[in-house]
Amino acid sequence: MRKTAVLLGSALVAAAGLAFPGMAAAEERAVIIKGFGAKSGVVRSFGINSEAAMRAAADLINSKGGVKLGDGATGKMEVEFLDDRCTAEEGISVVRRIASGPALVAIGPTCSNVAEPLFGVLQKKAGDASDSGLQFPIFTDVAVKGGLAKISEWAFRNVPSEAQMYNSLFEWVKQTRPELKTIYAGVEENFAHSRASWYAVMKEAAPKVGLEVKGEAKWLLEDTNFSQQVREIKAAAPDILAIAAHPFTTCGVLKEMRRQGVKVKMLIGLTSSSSLETLQGCAREAEGIIIPTSFAPVTPEAEAAAKQAARFDGSLDLHSAAAYENMFILKKVMEEQKVMAKPDTVQADREKIRKGLAGLKQTDGLLGTIKRTDDREAIKPYLYVHAKDGKWAVLHNPLTN
Amino acid sequence: MGFVDYVQAVIDGLLFGTTYSLIGIGFTLVFGVMHKINMSYAAASLAGAYCGLVGPQLLGLPAWTVFPLSIIAAGAIGYFIYLTCFRFIPLASPLATLMSTVGMLLLLDEIVVHSTAGMPQNYPAIYDGDPVEIGSFILRADLLGVFLVCVAAMAVLLALLYRTRLGLATRAVAQQPVAAQLCGMRLQAVNGLTFVIAGLLGGVAGAMIGASVGMLSPLISGPITVKGLIVTVIGGLGSIPGAIVAGLLVGAAENLFQALRNVTERDIYVMLLLFVFLVLRPGGLFATARGRD
Description:
The complex is a heterodimer.
Chain A: H1 2-19, H2 21-27, E1 28-37, H3 44-63, E2 67-68, E3 74-83, H4 88-99, E4 105-107, H5 112-120, E5 138-140, E6 155-157, H6 162-176, E7 182-188, H7 192-208, E8 212-219, H8 227-236, E9 240-244, H9 247-259, E10 266-269, H10 276-286, E11 290-293, H11 300-311, H12 318-336, H13 346-359, E12 362-364, E13 369-372, E14 378-379, E15 383-388, E16 391-396
Parallel strand pairs in A: 1-3, 1-4, 4-5, 5-6, 7-8, 7-9, 9-10
Antiparallel strand pairs in A: 2-3, 11-15, 12-13, 13-14, 15-16
Chain B: H1 3-34, H2 41-52, H3 54-58, H4 66-87, H5 94-116, E1 121-122, E2 132-134, E3 137-139, H6 141-163, H7 165-175, H8 177-182, H9 187-213, E4 215-216, H10 221-235, H11 240-260, H12 263-280
Antiparallel strand pairs in B: 1-4, 2-3
Helix pairs in contact in B: 1-6, 1-9, 1-10, 1-11, 2-4, 2-5, 2-9, 2-10, 4-5, 4-9, 6-7, 6-9, 7-9, 10-11, 11-12
């Protein structure tokens, strides 16, 4: 008799599970967030670190109870990272694929040359029925070329403002090293971000503090011989050399400067070069180079985040730290906007996330409060690091000085 | 820029051009023997150089070991490419081997990228001292060393080809494979050895490129492949002396064009140089009159 009762009870529980599958699922639902960026090619490290940062953040969020969904259920963040190979066509294809699935939002891409055309395929103005562009929120962590989010109302960025960072850096240089009067640049001519960083940012900022711009030496991203460019630098004899280039050619030029015995009083580098790659390629030659960046493990939160990312085999730098921050920002937005994360609410949830991100005036970041602008960009706290004894060390922190 | 700067640019280009020569020789050697282009040659040379870094970086060996290790590894990779892209693929289908080596190029590049996460790797210089100053001119001492090593490697190759039985067999197979077989030469063995020799030479090139740049990056293999092919065409497909001179010519020309015009225009003029040769001298620098168009 007792055996029969147990069997009947079990059958009833099983039948209830089959009849009401939503009951069990209502307790906990997947909140799918996709990452995309370069995981192959020469900027693979960016994708690896962004993915690790996203997974690290998702792990922490999930372990602390996940995302509180609109109906009171718990959402567990699920992260998948796709490779766009740092090419525009791959990036667009990846995002179209993501948008056709259950993902609510995507974080990426790595490269500005992907971000710019990709934002172009998104709906320009949210709610414009005549615009058939993709209606899918993208929250960029890495691609740093200025002003890209204005392309679409579905595009948001949490990248530092280079104009603000370099303006501030040159002000600081003027105050602390007034004897420096001239500046010369080395520019990677065929890379959009490098060009923009010199011509639109540093070259504009330097004269404002009285620095005389003596010109620029040019090279290409894949160049291997910098003897001419370094002779040009030598001939210009500047006090400051600003290198607007990525780690490979930055190191190539610095090594050639050492060979030719060319020395300057101050070296300034590109934000993206404040990474492990530069130290891996030319720690000795890069000694002393100053770079403004939006991340260094200088706060307890940043230190904890760096450790958490390391658990997922990633290194937190200014780019991957943004991916980490984005996950927490998205959690907050989803909870505020009462996202449901149900299969039949995917598009509604995407719109809620877009609206929530657009409404943000400030967010929490690893270094402090991040302000949000009306054109969906971020104004992030920053500091200056320099290469010292083969490591990046904080040289000056405007937040605390 | 003055006259001295232009001469200096040409000197720098000539010194760096020896590495182009070595890559060009590798292309031309395989083409000369098998009448096939091995598109993965430059990538394999650089992959060999990357393998050389395993000694100092992972095994704790002295920095100088990177050079012999790079050369040996590139030789082994050369033989692997022969086995995978040529040995078992019908040679009668020229596109098949071309595409298989393009695939190998991409594969090698991606293996390097995944092994290093795309990060530039510091590569030791063969000489780390001050440059040599001659009057107004400055010669990079390490590039002079690279130049001498490359010249020595070419001399060894030429001696191997023209002073040994292996070289005789290689040349015989290149000229008349069927007749060479009838004379008792083993075609597959000679072809395989040609890939190993070309690989070893590529290892020298890869190591010297790493030493002269001071770093290795996956960014290098694409441009070096293009330069190697240009050198091979200008030098004449299958002509080793042509590849040597063409490498120096391309190295000097690209530096001169950069000095005269601009870095962004430099490659346009190098490509124009290629077209000039293709139109006016399609057989290459040292083609016989009969070979000319």
